[in-house]
Amino acid sequence: MNLLRLVLMACAALLLSACMGPKTPQDVAEAFWQAVIDDDTRRVVRYSTLTDAQAYDGFARDWTGYRPAWGRVVIEGDRASIASEFSKAGGTAQDCREFVTYLVRQDDRWRVDYARTADSVRGDVISNLLGKLSELGSEISKQWEASTRELDAEVARMTEEFEALADLLGARASESIDKYADVLRQHLEELQESIDRALREKDDELSDRDRRLLQEVAADLDQTGEGLADPSVESIADGGRAAGEAQARLDTTDDDVTGEYKRRWHEWGERFEAEMRRLLNELSASDEP
Questions:
Q1: Which is more confident, 25 or 247?
Q2: Radius of gyration over alpha carbons of the chain, in Å?
Q3: In the Cβ-directed half-sphere of 93, how many Cα atoms lie within 13 Å?
Q4: Alpha helix locations (H) across the chain?
Q5: Strongest mean pLDDT among 65-69, 139-143, 174-178
Q6: Whole-number pLDDT of residue 163
Q7: For 245-255, how does the pLDDT look when each residue is reduced to its tens digit (9 = 90+)?
Q8: pLDDT for res 45
Q9: Residues 119-134: pLDDT tens digits?
Q10: Would you give the distance in Å from CA 6 to the centre of its chain?
């Protein structure tokens, strides 16, 4: 009798624990992402719309050591979205991952919408890589001497990374890099036109040194823009370099002659950075929570 009682109690406990599984979208999202961090494919399938365990690839990222933080939650009928941010203890800002976790209610149970969430996560992968490329070019432009070798090595590494992503993400990767390159090219053309205008309007006042500098910067921007017409990882990195180097060199011209133009070029730099940040955010996810 005691043995039967123990068996019944154990069964009841198992049934109770099953009934007390994740209920709310927040609970399900937390359980799902813990499964991702633990690389537990069985639980990933359990808490999501994914039905084929072999199709799980960790969203092409390593989640070891990451911790989630949750933001805005929106629940509309049988759909929900949760702003999600993952960071690593001791990690840098570049290690931070921000995207949206989407959920759907099926048969009265909330599950993570695997396909939509995957699009959001992978969009963040693309935007992070593009952001790194832009930052890389700007940073290396500050080291004019002996920077080419470092730039080439880093761009080569990122080219391999992006090609791997392109194989995984398909058309989305190409569309993102095309759009980013197009906006970057437009901004560089705007700066080049402003420099050409300064050369025309201030021709009689410019020193030989400043005239030569402006001509060199304008020519570099023109050549870089032509490269961006055929978008690639290398051309985007070169675009970031050209933008950063142009601003640094323009700032050395004579204030008495180019003061008004320098003010415009500084304003261009602020607009440029804000627009590229906005575009990266746009590329990181197709929908907002």
A1: 25
A2: 26
A3: 3
A4: 2-19, 25-38, 41-46, 114-141, 148-169, 171-201, 208-228, 233-250, 255-284
A5: 65-69
A6: 58
A7: 888 889 899 98
A8: 95
A9: 788 766 566 666 666 5
A10: 55
Q: Is the pLDDT of residue 18 over 50?
A: no
3-state secondary structure string across 131-151: HHHHHHHHHHHCCCCCCHHHH
The pair of three-digit structure tokens given for residue 95, joined into one six-digit string: 């290690």
Place of tokens 């006042």: 205
Which residue ranges form the domains of the chain, and what is each CATH number?
A: 22-112 (3.10.450.50), 125-284 (no CATH)
Spatial CB neighbours of 82, under 8 Å, sequence gap ≥ 6: 25, 26, 29, 70, 71, 72, 73, 74, 100, 101, 103, 289
Residue 103 Cα distances to 76, 189, 260, 281, angstroms: 10, 43, 53, 21
Structure tokens at 165: 């992503």
Distance CA 171, CA 167 (A): 9
The answer to whether 163 touches 185, Cβ cutoff 8 Å, is no
pLDDT of residue 155: 57
Structure token digits, residue 263 = 């003010």
